[in-house]
Amino acid sequence: MSAIVPPPSRVWWKQPLDRVEGTWIVIAFVWCLIMFFMMPYWHVYGKQNLSNEAYRTTPEWHTQKTQAMVDKYKVREETDQKIPVVHPPAGSDVYLIARLWQWWPMIELEEGKTYRLHLASMDWLHGFSLQPENINIEVHPNYEHVVTVTPTRAGTYSIICNEYCGINHHTMASRLYVVKSK
Amino acid sequence: MAVNRMFRICPSTGLVYHEPAEKLMRWNAVAGVVSLLVGGVLALLIILTRWQAVHLLPPDWFYLVLTAHGLDMLVFWIIFFEIAVLYFCASTLLRCRLAAPGMAWAAFWLMIVGALVNNVAVFRGDSSVMFTSYVPMGAHPAFYLGLILFAVGALIACFVFFGTLVVGKAEKTYNGSVPLVTFGAVTAAIIAVFTIASGAIILIPTFLWSLGLVNYMDSLMYRTVWWAFGHSSQQINVAAHVSVWYAIAAIVFGAKPMSERVSRTAFLLYIFFLQLASAHHLLADPGLTSNWKIFNTSYAMYLAVLASMVHGLTVPGAIEVAQREKGFNKGLFEWLRKAPWGNPVFVAMFLSLIGFGFLGGISGVMMGTEQLNLIIHNTIYVPGHFHATVVVGTTLAFMGLTYFLIPTLFRRELMFPTMAKWQPYLFGLGMMGFALFMMGAGTLGVPRRHWDISFAGNALPHEFPGTAWLMMSLMAICGLAAIVGGAMYLLITVGSVFLGKKITTPGFAHVRAKDGVAPTTKPVEVAFEAHGTNIGTAGFVAPGTLVLALVFLVAFVLYYFVNWKYLSTVWPLS
Fold first, then answer.
1. A chain contacts of residue B286, beta-carbon cutoff 8 Å
2. Rounded average pLDDT over B293-313
3. Is residue A47 a part of any domain in this protein?
4. Which residues of A touch B220 (CB under 8 A)?
5. What are the counts of helices (DSSP H) followed by strands (DSSP E) for chain A?
6. Half-sphere exposure (CA, 13 Å, Cβ side) for B75?
7. What's chain B's average pLDDT?
8. H-helix or E-strand containing A176?
């Protein structure tokens, strides 16, 4: 029983490295380096990187910007709650409000176009989860996260909440439409 | 104040128990097992709710039970048991008296009171804020107060542990360096101090905020500091269960570390780098730069991952060497085939090692990668990962240790030995399946902490693919198997400890420390034994383990790049 008693030799740190261990340490370390360099590599050559652009904001400011966008680009209303659907022009700033327990408004984007999506919460933490694409971003109150996004396939997508936000968390779901560009 | 120096020597293992330390180990272990019982009942309710075909609990109860399950398992069960392990590694392995048993009892009762206060707050129903209790969602002040009391107790216990190391050194109860297992426990305790300090930094202001004395808590600040507590506490578990692996390898096989230097350096890497890993909870958050995320989540170039990969090799490697020296030297895997597959102590430890590495380790590194996190953040993949690390890794290792401790620490014969033989298989394999299917469902986008993925009655429901539903059902079935395995563990443990046949030794009497116990071995300068002059193949003493490690590496590399491939198909983001 040796791992549970003091090492038999007092200068245990001078014991030469075993070949099995030495080989494995080299292999494992090289693999660790590869994994490390994958992240900066993807920032240069990859297309999916989460934006570093974020600002301090307030619920009032974010509501005001969102309302202005809705007033300008609303194309229709959906559901009994008359949630507006907006179709902002390509390249523009798109605002999305996360609040208990709703995403507001609904957004319609064009395939292959790039948008600046502004995310902020009005109250607690929420989780922006775009399905079935499976893009997941944390949404904070008082922080405005600007994510540049380019939808690649037309279709109807869901935005669900995947950060627990209280008793009706599981009802927080909305749509995002991607249409073929005209 | 008189110092209690009463010791006893366990007749079957030769381990030395200091009387007050022994009692503290027992009580802490029992408190842990009681928490496990409560958490296990809650786990059953959660499984039966997330299995949509049953959908047992209403939403308010589901979120309440999920909060309580997280706390009772991840905090109370594991930390109570870890305190017992710390006292064992200090007092028993160093053959010395426990420093300040009175303080240790104060710590124990503080932890008990903290755990009760916290549980009462949750079960009152106004603190269903989950284990993470992210602000600005608030809980009842008692919720935070309970956690703070518990943490203070745990901190005192850590200092009793450190004090015991000092006592052992001062009273010369051992020679040279502390045993490797104790060294691992020191690692765990050092990480624990850092962890608890972070917890205090965030939970005390949150407690004051819940009382109305602080008027604003920033959600990003909370998440950043909270995870320095929340994730680091899992690193205590890693250090603790790796120590338990080494201990079990030594107990069952008489295995000695392949090299003390490598194993101890690997533990040291944990202290230096594991805490940085807390940052990988913040990869999908605004307001932090990519540089910060990459440096921290790679644990500064994955040096802590390297440490785990080293332990993952050296533990089975030490077993292989010990087995080969016993004569099981044929081929690559005779040592493994001839391992005691009917001994629950070994089986629990070995499944813990495999599950922790293959499922918990690989998935953890994958999702801790800055960009890859985008496709799994807050999906049910995350609990899939940590059930593989904390349940298969830590809990199963602790279960294995329990089977060893019942005869030696509690002096009772193990009840239901046949059931004990099967328990680690059922629990371990059930839990692995459970974790694996959760990860599968998470890859398909199923969210964690979610009462109803059918979105029934919702105006804008999302329809998950059929495969996701299938994964969730398979998860539930595997989960139920693990629950049965957990119940077996509780039955065996509680049965043995309270009703098991007492082990009595004729002429047993406690002896004073100075009257013969702890005969310190003379400091002898032994030459390094080059183990394996005639074992192994091709100059490798543990070729089988190296092959297993390479299989692990191939699985790791493939899975890692499959996820990059998957990421490359989602919408471009910048």
1. 54, 119, 138, 140, 143-145
2. 88
3. no
4. 140, 143
5. 2, 12
6. 29
7. 92
8. strand A173-179
Indicate if the alpha-carbon torsion angle B210, B211, B215, B221 is positive or negative: negative
- What whole-number distance in Å separates Cα of residue B519 and Cα of residue B522? 9
H-helix or E-strand spanning residue A96: strand A93-99
Backbone angles phi, psi at A97, to 5 degrees: -100, 135
Range of the domain at A154: 54-179
Secondary structure (3-state) at B21:
helix
Residue B380 tokens read as 């049910």
Q: Select from B104, B108, B107, B110 the least CA-distant residue to B163.
A: B104
- Which one, of B374, B278, B378, lies nearest residue A126 by Cα? B378
Question: Is residue B520 within 8 Å of B173, Cβ to Cβ?
Answer: yes
Token representation of residue B420: 């004990």
Q: Searching chain B, which residue's CA lies closest to the CA of residue A44?
A: B574
Each residue of A49-69: pLDDT tens digit?
999 999 999 999 999 999 999
Given CB atoms, is A112 within the 8 Å cutoff of chain B?
no
B496 contact partners, CB below 8 Å, separation of at least 6 = B406, B410, B412, B413, B414, B415
Which residue from B182, B306, B444 is facing A28, i.e. has the nearest CB? B306
SS (H, E, C) A109-162: EECCCCEEEEEEECCCCEEEEEECCCEEEEECECEEEEEEECCCCCEEEEEEEC
Return d(Cα A9, Cα A56) in angstroms, integer: 59
| Total count of domains within chain A | 1
Stretch B89-107: mean pLDDT, rounded?
Answer: 95
Dist. CA A47–CA B568, nearest whole Å: 7
What gap in Å lies between CA A103 and CA A97, rounded to an integer? 6
Inter-helix orientation angle B141-170/B78-87, to 10°: 10
pLDDT at B5 exceeding the cut of 80: no
Q: Kindly report the number of other CB atoms within 10 A of residue B71's CB atom.
A: 28
Judge whether A144 lies within some domain: yes
Task: Enumerate the domain spans of chain B.
Answer: 8-122+144-176, 340-454+462-503
Q: Which two tokens stand for residue B75?
A: 């905090």
Q: Please give the Cα distance from A145 to B21 (Å, whole number).
A: 53
Q: Which helix (H) or strand (E) holds B6?
A: strand B6-9
- pLDDT tens figures, B441-492: 999 999 999 999 999 989 999 999 999 999 999 999 999 999 999 999 999 9
Residue B302 to residue A39: CA distance in whole angstroms: 12
SS3 A89: coil
Which residue in the set A50, A136, A158 is minimally distant from B462, CB to CB? A158
Residue A36 domain flag: no
CB-CB contact of A119 with A139 (8 Å): yes
DSSP B511-530: EETTTTSS-PPP---PPPP-
List the single residue in B310, B318, B450 with the smallest CB-CB distance to A25.
B310
Phi-psi region of A77 (alpha: psi -120 to 50; beta: other; left: phi over 0): beta
Domain assignment of residue A27, yes or no: no
- CB contacts of B568 in chain A (<8 Å) are 46-48
Please write the tens of the pLDDT for every residue from B237-279.
999 999 999 999 999 999 988 989 999 999 999 999 888 888 8
Whether residue A145 and residue B528 make contact (CB cut-off 8 A), yes or no, is: no
- Residue A18 to residue B365, Cβ atoms within 8 A: no
Question: Nearest-CA neighbor of B68 among B109, B142, B134, B118?
Answer: B118
Q: Calculate the CA dihedral of residues B202, B208, B213, B219 and round it to 10 degrees.
A: 40
CATH number for the domain spanning A117: value is: 2.60.40.420
What 3-state class would DSSP assign to B12?
coil
CB A161 within 8 A of CB A172: yes
